[in-house]
Structure formats: C-alpha cells, structure tokens
Design a protein that fits this description.
The complex is a heterodimer. Chain A is an all-alpha fold. Helices cover 71% and strands 0% of the residues of chain A. Chain A contains 10 helices and no strands. Chain B has a 6-stranded mixed β-sheet, sandwiched between helices. A 6-stranded mixed β-sheet of chain B has the order 16-17-18-13-19-20, with helices on both faces. The radius of gyration of chain B is 25 Å and the shape is globular. Chain B starts with a strand and ends with a helix. The chains are: A mainly alpha, B alpha/beta. At the A-B interface, helix 7 and helix 8 of A face helix 12, strand 16 and helix 14 of B.
C-alpha cells in the first residue's frame, strides 16, 4: 500500500481520528486545566481565558472535551469491536452450520431485537452495578443483534458458492470455512456497517449518559457534557453544541476512513491497479 | 439500390469502472461494415467479448448500459437510424426492427399471459387492432410449431417449456411483421434435443415471413444451418465476412480455420475397460421426496475417462454429488478401489476425500476470489501433505507449469485471469491433491470453443502423465468423442446406455440416444434439412 494512493477524504478522516486518539491518550498533558477543576464563572463565552469557554459549573470546556475523548472513544470503540466480533462469529456459524444451531441463534437474536434497545439497556443498566465494563458489555450485546442480522444474510449468500463446497469436499473444518473462505468475502458490507455502528455507539453512549446511566459524573464524556450544558441553550449559550459537534466530527471521520477501506476491500485484485 | 440494412464503419466504446480503480474507456467494436438484403440472414460469430451482441443491438440503435456508438452509421432502408431522436427511434424499435434475447425465461414478464405480451408491441405502435394481432399471433404459433396455436397465448410463461418460450419470443418478434429481426443466441441456453426444434422453427418462420435477420451465436454449426452469410468477429474486429459455404468449406483467415476445425479432437478409447477403480452400484438418490437417480450402476477403470451424458435435469450433477458424499444415496454403494466409501461426507477420512477431487463448471465461483492462485493451489498441499513455505511454493510452481501457466501467475487473484486460465487453476487445485479420480462437472461448457479445446487437450495430457481417472459430466457429444473411453447416457435419472464409447455411439440405438446424437448440429450446410427430412420419413413410416 502506498501512502499516495490514499485519497484526501480518507486523510481528513485519519487526521481527525488521530487527533482524537492523541487527546485521549495524552489528556493530562494536553489539557490546560483538570477534568474536574472549577476554574471560572459558569458559561463563560468562547475565547478569552478559556478557549472554548466554561460549562455549567465553571469547568474549562476544552479540558473536559479532551478528557471526555478518553471515555467516549474507549467505550464506543470497545463496544463496537466487541459487538462485531460477537455478531460476526455467531452469524457466520449460523450460516455455515445451519440446522438447529442456526434456528436457535436466529430466534434468540429475534427475541433480543424485539425489545427496543434503549428500554432494554435502561432496565439492564439500572439493575446491574454501574461499572464501565458492564456498560460496554451491554452496549456490545445489544448492538451485536444488528450485526448478526447482516452477517448471516451476507454469509448465507457466500456459503452456497462452489468454493465453499470445494472447501467442504476437501475436508476443511467450520473454523477454516468461516475465517478463510467466508470472512474475506463478507468484509465489504460489514466494514460499511462498522462505520455506521461506531457512530451509533457514540450516540447511544451519549443517550445513556444523558439519561444518567452511562458515564457517571464528574467524569467527562461528550454525551454527558451535552446533557450538563443543555439548559444553557434556552439562554442562548452554545456550550452544549461544542461536545455535540465533537461527536458529529468523530462520526464523520470514522466514516470517511471506512469509505476508503470499503473501496479497497471491494477490489477483487487485492487493491492493485 | 439501397440495402435493407447498411452498416458502415461502426465503432462502439464503453467506460469500465473496475472496483477500486480509476475508470477507463475501452473500444468494444471497431470498423464494422456489412449489408443485409430482405429475406437474407447474416450470422455473427465469435467468442465471448467479440462484440457480436453489441453489433446486433446497434442494428436497433441501442447500446447496453454505458455503451456508446461513437462512429459510423446504421442505415435502415437508406435512413441513418443512429441520427434519429428518441421518438424516431421508437418508431423503429419493436415495429421495423425486433429483438430475440438469449434467455426467454428472463425476458418474459412472469405475471402476464404470453399472448398479451406478444401482441403488446404491435398494439402500442398502432400497427393492427387487437383482433388482428391475436389472429396473427395464432398463425405464427402454428408456423413455429407451438402446441394448440389458438389457445397457446393464454398460458403464462411458467406453463410452457424453455424451448417453447424461446419460440414464443420469436413469435413476439415476428408479430409486427418487421423488416429485420436480431436473434441474440436464441438457442444457447437450450438442450440440444430442444435446440433443433427451435432452430427449425426459426428457420421456417424466417422463410415464410421473408424478413431479414441477424443471427448472433458462438456456435458455427448452428449458424451454418440458418445463415446465408457469416461474419467472423474477434475482439471487436472483423476477421472474415462471406457466404456460409465459403466460410465453412474454404476459410481464408487462420482464426476461422481454427474455429472450423475445433472439436475435431477424437480420443482413441482404451481397449481394456474391465478395471473397476470407481464403481457405482445400484444408486438411488432423491432431494426430499423428488427422486433424481434410480438404480444407477456404472464403473470407471483406472487412468480412463467415463463420460456421463444427458440433458439438464437428467441427474448428471446429482451423480457427482452422490460420489462426493454431498448427497448420501437412498440406496446403493459407491466403491473406490474395492473399498466402500461412507455415504456421508462427514463419515469419510481425509485420505478418502483426497482421492476424489472435483472440477466445477463455473471456475469463477469455484475459487475464492480473495485468495491468490498460490493460496488456492497451495491449500490442498498443506492440508493433505503438510507442505509449507518454500517447498509448497515450489510445488505450486511445478503444478502451474503442468497446466501451462508460467512464472507470473502465482500471486495473482482469480479476477486477474481469463476464463480458460481460471479453469486451468481449478484443474491444478484438483491435481495438487494427487487424486485417483477427478469429477469434472461440465468444465468446458462455459468456455469458448477454442479455449475449451485447450482444456480438453490439457486434461488428456495430464491423464497420460498421472494416470488419473475422469468422470466427465457433459451434455455435448463432441466433448464425449474428444475425451471419453466409456460413456453412460442418463435420461430422467436412469442409465439408458452404458459401455465403451464405440458401442454407445454406434447403432442400434435406443430412442433417446438416437434423438440425442441426431440433434447435435453438424458443421455443414443443409444438415438441418436432412435431419428434418429424415424425421418426417420416420414419422410417415410409423
């Protein structure tokens, strides 16, 4: 792969993601103030002492945005990766093995999907202890139902191809068929879905935080920051829009990169011209 | 005098958009000129990608998605139809020039009655009223030897056979009494026994209605029966153009000579066929309740080829599925070298799986498009023989040389290969397992004749070198002559004839084998008439 072959749109996406990751990793060194430190008046305007102003408690918005990148990206990324691993393995297994395994997995999936995601999450998170790994796990399991649906549909199409039959005739096991025969051919639609799902995970986490079930204060996360500052909008104070914009920008950046990868993976010539 | 159709200097271009690459322009057809008079038939012949269908469609001033006619003129009765605006072209298409597609099953709307679809174009153009159109449709059904001409039009597409559907489509094209009809491979998707009826019907209809026709096909023997002139095309350029007799009996161009002499390969059959390396004994097989094979018993000696012949639906491919274990038989056994194979795939050992390999009809779908040639051929090596690294790569290279592909192929993807090359890689993958039997499921039927010939020669050479046995499934008698030692004729799931090739292909015949052999078009002018004449005499004699 040559760097020059990467289109400008993908560069923008990569730059955005790298920026967010740098903020996440080096937050304590980059941020001008502490995450929980009250440094000034409430809702001070953009500019002046504080580059992006202050929030509803007088904390520096820029610092909280940088610290918030940590939790937001970590939780959304691990939840999405987990949901994809789970959904893909289960759906490919269902498509390759068929029979009762397929029935059991598919009906269980239908069952999970029949309950609205948000309500399901609210109930489960309200009952279980409020820890980050539980939050990630619940988000991943709920999201994996969507991945399962798509993955199974794609894999069933591929599983009837002659090359899969040829692998069976060779005596290959299910694991080889799933990972070596089906996965490379199913990558394009799943990758496209990954971009979407990651954006949804950021938004879903924001929704949960907004409802008080996601990241707990005073820890910063972008969704929670929107919630904290939403009252300001009534008074014409745009503080809530800044973390909102960060969420949107991250989602767009991820999708720009995914679009480019999608183009590469759909080439049947291994991406060479 | 102006000709009915006068095509001059036709050039057709298109833009391709390969995924993950920059789009580029390609020339599909270049500098094509021909004339066609009323009542004459021009055969366009060439391999896939030669541009024959594209030229056929250009006669309707039409280009398939993304195709542009960039130079030349197409004159119909002296008028250049390429210059016409949309309403003008509409007056031409479906009224003065009609089109018969390759797959009638895909071209008819399954939700409407045949009759309504057949008369639709004539009504839309206001050429006749409905009663007259229906009357003419019934007359054409009669000319095309369709059953119950008066009521045939009331049927839906699924209620008639493939051959009848193709004739119904011909009726649709003939109905507005056009000046020109473009036939785009109308018999390619049909069985030989059906093809002959459709061919005869088309020929008779053309003669009765005095319409001109362009007949597009890749089968020289077929076009020899219907055309007056033939144009041979290769890669969008004209190779040779002349009267049928001239092209078939005294071709000028080297390429035409190759096309004419293709399929002249004949394999001497082995004298001793008593060996029973692969023995199929009394096999019954069914999909659910639908019985596909009944009491099939054939055997295959070591180092020889058994051809399994039959039309679509006769159970040829099912027999292969039974042998591989994909479809356990209801009854009967499959024995390899005296050892009874477990009926189910999951019951077979790795060694048993290794000894039977398979080559598929569509090399495109038989290879994982995400694996390189080296990975495809190398997998059986590491799977069965535990070969890795440099040793594996060296063995893959040896196999590639055996199938006449050179150095540069090992790291290519299937999408970077031609159809014939893909099939060769599939053969190498089968060979890599060092099997004793290779099941070949119509490996040449999706390929152009010259390429198919190359594959058959390769298979024969490999058989001599490795003394592997082939069970060769085909519907093509020429392929049987080229490759088989023994032949089994399947009809409706039963073996109607089995034995050495010389016995099976010589009289006395049973009814089905007789029909099958007589239906295969022969490459000479007048063959169709002879067969039809003979049939009439037999039926008169009964």
């Amino acid at each position: 792969m040559r760097l020059r072959s990467i289109p400008p749109s993908a560069w923008i996406g990569i730059a955005g993601i790298v920026l967010a990751l740098v903020c996440a990793v080096f937050a304590p060194w980059i941020a001008p103030y502490g995450e929980r430190e009250i440094v000034g008046d409430i809702w001070q305007p953009v500019g002046g002492d504080f580059l992006l102003g202050t929030d509803n408690l007088g904390r520096d918005l820029l610092s909280r945005l940088i610290f918030g990148a940590r939790t937001t990206i970590f939780v959304a990324m691990s939840a999405t990766l987990l949901s994809f691993s789970l959904g893909m393995i289960l759906s490919f297994t269902a498509a390759v093995v068929r029979g009762w395994t397929d029935q059991a997995l598919s009906r269980l999936n239908d069952l999970l999907m029949s309950v609205p995601t948000l309500i399901f999450a609210l109930v489960v998170l309200a009952v279980l202890p409020q820890e980050m790994w539980i939050l990630i796990l619940v988000m991943a399991v709920l999201d994996s139902t969507r991945v399962f649906r798509l993955g199974r549909a794609v894999a069933v199409d591929i599983a009837v191809m002659d090359f899969v039959e040829a692998a069976r005739l060779r005596g290959e096991g299910t694991v080889w068929i799933i990972f070596r025969e089906i996965l490379p051919n199913a990558l394009s639609p799943l990758l496209a879905e990954f971009g979407m799902r990651f954006a949804f995970a950021v938004l879903f986490l924001s929704t949960l935080s907004f409802l008080g079930l996601g990241i707990q204060p005073p820890a910063a996360d972008w969704g929670g920051m929107v919630k904290d500052n939403k009252d300001g909008i009534i008074f014409g104070i745009p503080a809530a829009l800044i973390p909102g914009g960060a969420i949107a920008a991250l989602a767009i950046c991820v999708n720009l990169v995914v679009d480019w990868l999608l183009n590469r993976t759909s080439s049947l010539k291994g991406g060479r011209g | 005098m102006t000709s009915l159709l006068d095509v001059r200097g036709l050039k057709i271009e298109a833009t391709t958009y390969p995924p993950g690459e920059a789009p580029r322009d390609i020339t599909i057809v270049e500098d094509i000129s021909f004339r066609l008079e009323q009542g004459r038939v021009l055969g366009l012949i060439g391999e896939s990608g030669a541009g024959k269908s594209t030229i056929g469609l250009a006669a309707l001033a039409y280009g398939r998605g993304g195709v542009r006619i960039t130079a030349g003129e197409v004159r119909l009765d002296g008028e250049d139809i390429l210059g016409l605006k949309r309403p003008g072209i509409r007056q031409v298409r479906g009224a003065r020039v009609c089109y018969v597609a390759q797959s009638a099953a895909a071209a008819f709307n399954p939700a409407h009655r045949l009759g309504d679809q057949i008369i639709e174009a004539a009504l839309r153009h206001g050429l006749m009223d409905e009663a007259a159109a229906r009357e003419r449709a019934a007359y054409l059904f009669g000319v095309l030897s369709l059953p119950d001409p008066a009521t045939f039009g009331e049927r839906y597409p699924h209620q008639v056979s493939g051959g009848q559907l193709q004739r119904a489509m011909t009726a649709m094209a003939l109905l507005p009494a056009p000046e020109l009809i473009v036939f785009d491979e109308p018999t390619t998707a049909l069985d030989v026994t059906t093809q002959i009826d459709v061919l005869a019907a088309i020929k008779r209809a053309i003669e009765e209605t005095r319409t001109a026709a362009i007949y597009v096909t890749h089968d020289l023997a077929v076009v020899a029966q219907v055309a007056d002139d033939i144009m041979v095309l290769r890669a969008g350029k004209m190779v040779e153009y002349g009267p049928v007799r001239k092209i078939i009996e005294a071709p000028d161009a080297e390429y035409t000579r190759e096309l004419v002499s293709v399929r002249s390969l004949v394999q001497e059959e082995a004298a001793d066929q008593s060996d029973r390396l692969l023995a199929i004994e009394g096999v019954d097989a069914a999909y659910g309740e639908t019985r596909v094979l009944s009491d099939v018993s054939v055997h295959l000696p070591r180092g020889q080829t058994l051809a399994v012949v039959g039309e679509s639906g006769s159970g040829k491919s099912t027999l292969a599925r039974v042998i591989t274990g994909l479809l356990p038989p209801k009854d009967g056994t499959v024995r390899l070298a005296g050892e009874t194979l477990p009926p189910k795939l999951s019951g077979r050992s790795r060694e048993q799986l290794r000894t039977i390999q398979m080559i598929y009809q569509m090399a495109d779908t038989a290879m994982n498009p995400r694996h390189t040639v080296g990975q495809i051929i190398g997998r059986p090596l590491s799977f069965y023989f535990n070969m890795h690294g440099a040793r594996k790569r060296q063995r893959v290279q040896e196999l590639l040389e055996q199938i006449e592909l050179g150095e540069g192929f090992i790291d290519r993807y299937p999408a970077e290969l031609s159809g014939g090359q893909k099939q060769r890689v599939a053969i190498a993958r089968a060979l890599a397992a060092e099997p004793t039997v290779i099941l070949c499921d119509e490996p040449t039927s999706a390929l152009d004749p010259l390429v198919a010939d190359g594959i058959l020669k390769l298979l024969l050479r490999l058989q001599k070198e490795t003394s592997v046995s082939y069970l060769f499934i085909t519907h093509d008698i020429a392929t049987v002559r080229a490759i088989a030692d023994s032949v089994a004729v399947l009809y409706q799931g039963r073996v109607v004839r089995f034995g050495p090739k010389s016995e099976v292909l010589s009289p006395p015949f049973d009814d089905y084998t007789d029909l099958l052999l007589k239906s295969v078009p022969e490459l000479r002018v007048g063959w169709l008439e002879e067969v039809l004449q003979e049939r009439r005499m037999t039926s008169a004699g009964h």
